[in-house]
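Quick one:
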Amino acid sequence: MRVYLYAKSGHAIGLDATRRCASIAKILEEKGCDPILCTCDFRAGAYAKEILGIKKYVSVDVLSNLPNIMERGDILIYDTDEASDFMQEHMKDFCTLLYKIPEDIPSTIIDQEYFTKKEDQKIEKLFFFGDDDYNNTLLKMRKNSPKQNIPLLCGHYFFLGNEKELEPYFSDLLEEESYVDSIQNAKYLLSGSLNACIESIKCGGKPVLFKREDKNYDDDLIKKLNLPIIKTTSLEEAIDEFENVIKTYPKINELESFDINNIIKTICSKVETYKKLTN
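Output:
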């Protein structure tokens, strides 16, 4: 019996699901469950190992290909919108335990090794558009914009050459490898990633969500958090609005607590019982 985590990822999707699943995989590793992280592309898995600290990963193009590597009775945690009702029923029959993010585990799950309360944050303001920009939206936004007094944290899937195109419009460009340190140390964060905003909140930062047209967001969660929102197609307008929000930044509501330890205990118990029966 093996434990798998499947995260939808890719150059048009980003790494938010990968980060969430990696945080769970690390807890399972600490408990000796030897989980395997499945990502839709090799780069996401390599990133999770090199930057996020997971031990095992494998590339799986789509969720429906998981049975090619899994065995009946294995355990699966998955973070994707790919599964139809029929597929979910099949997965329930195939797996001993099945957990879906955000239904069974909230999407606010983060890596507590990295994203905890931080004092004396060194970066006053930071813009993180997201890990992906498949439609070159940020390049279009920066047209006719003067240089902005804010650093840009580059995305993992930015196209080759985009950094040179963007560099004149920001005070600094931070490499994507510095993601964890940058989110930790940003006092005010403007981001197109709701996941990054949640990580920022956990670190004591004050994030503002930049609502991208090519992304779907959990509006109920945004409302619960009282998270401020910016939506525009102009970089100059986005930064101007960001500055205005900072002046009267609202009180962010606390994230609802979720104890994943009960799920971890259940998974580890099943794995341990299986080991005893097969040894």
